[in-house]
Amino acid sequence: MSLRGKTAVVTGSNSGIGLGVARELARAGADLVLNSFTDRDEDHALAEAISTEFGVVAKYVKADMSVGEECRSLIEAAGSCDILVNNAGIQHVAPIDEFPRDKWDAIIAINLNSVFHTTAAALPMMRAAGWGRIVNVASAHGLTASPYKSAYVAAKHGVVGMTKAVALETAQEPITCNAVCPGYVLTPLVEAQIPDTMKEYGMDRETVIKDVMLARQPSKEFATVEQLGGTVAFLCSSAATQITGTTLSVDGGWTAL
């Protein structure tokens, strides 16, 4: 599989799932535009390191995914966008009657509205190029729900719905739009939570992972960022040309329950 000559824009990609996806796309030969809301030397150094490691062109573009115009400016700054991976997201947990309004607005803006803005800006470029792949990183919570996560669940369900709508609008064009729905993924952020959770429950590492953190994930194993990246790369390949408007779960059987 080769994505040589394609340019991929991955939102929220200086760490975690987004970085894992970006690295796998670079491994397949795609040039990269990395993104987050910061503008640090290490962000640009990360792009340079990926460029050197995989022999692709990689750059970092700062853009705040909570601001519609910055979402669109990111695509413009990319210059071309053959592959769009909408990954940026945040989370907050609280009962709905106590859910802070600012947290609700931020989650909907970053997790859902940004997908609309980047897609709207990228589609004309894909049409002009005669080829395009849109992959939205949704969640198991785009297919099911959990208490105290109303904004996140609403946003991710919205991403799944938007994925289907975009797929139908582009069904007779060489453009596909799909959603990947991860369960729990072992990111640096999740890894950092394990020691505190061990203390809270008085459990060893293995027990807290299986019985607390992965209580809803039947495999009792985290997905990895490399697995998510491989899934996205597959959806961008020629083998996935007739896969559009669907969700692909990487959740250890969570949504099979």
Explain what this protein looks like in three dimensions.
The chain contains eight helices and seven strands. The protein has helices at 16-27, 41-54, 68-78, 101-129, 150-169, 188-201, 205-213, 225-235; strands at residues 7-10, 31-36, 58-62, 83-86, 132-137, 175-182, 247-250. α3 runs parallel beside α4 (101-129). The chain is α/β, with parallel strands linked by helices and 257 residues long. Strands 3-2-1-4-5-6-7 form a seven-stranded parallel sheet, sandwiched between helices. It is 47% helix and 14% strand.
Structural class: alpha/beta
Strand order of the largest sheet: 3-2-1-4-5-6-7
The span between the termini is: 33 Å
Helix-strand topology string: EHEHEHEHEHEHHHE
Pick out the low-confidence regions: none
In the CATH hierarchy, the architecture of the largest domain is 3-Layer(aba) Sandwich
Q: How helical, in percent, are the residues?
A: 40-55%
Radius of gyration: 18 Å
Q: How much is the average pLDDT?
A: 97
In CATH, the topology of the largest domain is named: Rossmann fold
How many beta strands in the DSSP annotation? 7
Number of helices: 8
CATH superfamily of the largest domain: NAD(P)-binding Rossmann-like Domain
CATH class of the largest domain: Alpha Beta
Form type: globular
Percent in strands? 5-15%
Number of domains: 2
Sketch the major β-sheet. 7 strands, parallel
